[in-house]
Design goal:
Length: about 150
Amino acid sequence: MTSVTSPVAGRAIGLAAVPDPVFSGAMVGPGTAIDPVREPSEAVAPVDGVIVSLHPHAYVVVDGDGHGVLTHLGIDTVQLNGEGFELLLNKGDTVTRGQAIVRWNPAAVEEAGKSPVCPIVALEATADSLAGLVEDGDMKAGDALFSWQ
């Protein structure tokens, strides 16, 4: 079983509240979302594993069970072309839960006209394979979001 923890601090709001139909409709996969605190911070690894995909605005970490977890920093943030995001690691790096991957500023994302809401998605998972899904309440980076059977 994979325990997935929050990569950012903020308020859990659930995927249905994400202002993007691809995420809110769980087309990418099931999971939850965090409305982040509006201050410069580091987005961290939600699981132990390997970074298999890394962009300034999004990354995927795959754990030892082959479970890939997508962290997407804001909505439509790909359009910012990396501005306001700083990669701290590289694709292929092995990470431990809580290790910083990207430094970013949710307030700057919002000022640029984008939503800073962060979907955290279990890739290629079924909704019934997740347990204990947190969709409400204040979260610190590292707090449990869901378990993946």
